[in-house]
Amino acid sequence: xxxxxxxxxxxxxxxxxxxxxxxxxxxxxxxxxxxxxxxxxxxxxxxxxxxxxxxxxxxxxxxxxxxxxxxxxxxxxxxxxxxxxxxxxxxxxxxxxxxxxxxxxxxxxxxxxxxxxxxxxxxxxxxxxxxxxxxxxxxxxxxxxxxxxxxxxxxxxxxxxxxxxxxxxxxxxxxxxxxxxxxxxxxxxxxxxxxxxxxxxxxxxxxxxxxxxxxxxxxxxxxxxxxxxxxxxxxxxxxxxxxxxxxxxxxxxxxxxxxxxxxxxxxxxxxxxxxxxxxxxxxxxxxxxxxxxxxxxxxxxxxxxxxxxxxxxxxxxxxxxxxxxxxxxxxxxxxxxxxxxxxxxxxxxxxxxxxxxxxxxxxxxxxxxxxxxxxxxxxxxxxxxxxxxxxxxxxxxxxxxxxxxxxxxxxxxxxxxxxxxxxxxxxxxxxxxxxxxxxxxxxxxxxxxxxxxxxxxxxxxxxxxxxxxxxxxxxxxxxxxxxxxxxxxxxxxxxxxxxxxxxxxxxxxxxxxxxxxxxxxxxxxxxxxxxxxxxxxxxxxxxxxxxxxxxxxxxxxxxxxxxxxxxxxxxxxxxxxxxxxxxxxxxxxxxxxxxxxxxxxxxxxxxxxxxxxxxxxxxxxxxxxxxxxxxxxxxxxxxxxxxxxxxxxxxxxxxxxxxxxxxxxxxxxxxxxxxxxxxxxxxx
Length: 684
Known about the structure:
With 684 residues, this protein is mostly beta strands. The strands form 12 sheets. Strands 2, 3, 4, 6, 7, 9 and 10 form a 7-stranded antiparallel beta sheet that branches. Strands 12, 13, 14, 15, 16 and 17 form a 6-stranded antiparallel beta sheet that branches.
């Protein structure tokens, strides 16, 4: 961050006092500027610093006005106001004083000792360099212009020492530049007795930079490579004095060869200027035996925020002093026998559109020198920053599983032809593009992107755009627009939180049912707090009993079908499970363990005894002995092909050794066949 101190040595500073007791008197030559009331009456002062050393539209980090005083009264509040019209320091009086803003820009309070008072004028200087307000300077006044003998007097620019100064700390914007920037120069080149002279392109140069070569050469017939335009040239004292320039491209690397018809000596520089739109004007003038180098008596432009670049060359071992308000970039003298010097100095014009002879004059320390005074007026690229309006999402949303985060709004860019890209990122993560479009300067560029929250991440379609997002903490969505000229809109942010998907809740708790002899019957309900749909799967030892869409809060009953029950191995631990899975695959499980005890025998025929027609009776004989007290149960069906056969109890017929007459006369399958189920259980 450069820090520049504006003084009477390097800047044009104007100041004066006005007094109500001498309303037609001008006081520009006074060594002091006063405020408040003395024995004669009321006085105020005006002060103006030219800001030519400060880039237009720079970021003013701090600006401090320093005024030296020998206070007569301590504790006086001194106000600074922005002046609202122009004034001339050598003619302004109380009667012709300019107006000033009624609002106070800043204040400081007088002390009791001799010294410097410091005024923070950062905001005021920022408005001047941004072009928000013309720089007409400052009005100084006491905050209470009543009473008597309370005046404060500061040293003016006419004082012998301790004159007014401003210390300015500034930065150049990274994006949205609105000023020409002097980047640097090559080393001073001195080539003797050569036909081809190479001027190196500085490593700092970037494509798009405005490259300016400044050289003198003793041999005639100089030639530059294609693409270089000669802006200023003059033959003086046996040498060609040349200013040429071009915008750098990717093919401009290494050196720029400058050739001449015969061998000669070349002294030169290459300068780099950035963010140049065009050369808005040029002036030059041959200098014949003078120490004053000015390119014209009046240089004008019809644009604000230009940079005036003075490019002077002299055929003598001499140095230059630049005019006030100009930064001197180079000033290098070459010693005899081929004495010469090249100077480059530049100033920021802000809202000024002209410079007169005295404002453009560099002073050579050689009284009778010969050379060329040149001036280029460079117009900056004024890139308007894109703007962005975000209409969605709203701030502080909470995302649950499957919910969407829609990013929508519009971007505008006042510069027609700029390519505008809308971008976003989440929590300083990866940057993604939403859309890109060419601005026509007026029509908003609409954009929309929908992200979906799934499995603790945000997805653009099937592509994750975030890592796993922490639950119940604030996450930040940042959206902005960029143009292809380096401009960027302010960031627009929205905060949001996420809640992890909660699996469906199954009532009850895991349980060991112990050793059981009959299939269990378990009642349960399933609920989902987010209201998502879910599926219930009942299983025993991993084998599905049933799987079906669940109903939130509905009571269900879990049991083991007879055919599965009788196949379970006795005496070992089995698992009966209920699993509920929501539509986003979050699931919960309830587990019941048990052992099956066997105190009887159950048999069932798997094969179906075929029948050509409806069986009306059947006889079954059992060979063996049934233990005393045991219960024999025999079930039979004649429609065994049906999905739900009709089972009939023929136990008594078997015990009596007699045929059993079927009562069933229907078959839904249209086929007839016989199956048996036999159980021998303890009596009781």
